[in-house]
Please model this.
Amino acid sequence: MIAVITATIPGREDMLAECKASVAAQTLPATEHLVALDREMKGRTGRVANQLVKRTDCEWLAPFADDDLMLPKHLETLAAHAA
Model:
């Protein structure tokens, strides 16, 4: 139903791990959590996020930064308002 996409850069592994844990702890699980590393580190994680979008066929996408944490009902709330 909802795919979470996260672009990241090297050196943010600890933050990314926390991000992944918060996505995994959702009351409504994500259909998938796609993560990609911007190895070029040119500050263009949008390009990497666009590549992630092409890898899913989910109707709904939740772009999520690697340094953010989702509250437990985030995806549940999004799904409730999707209709």
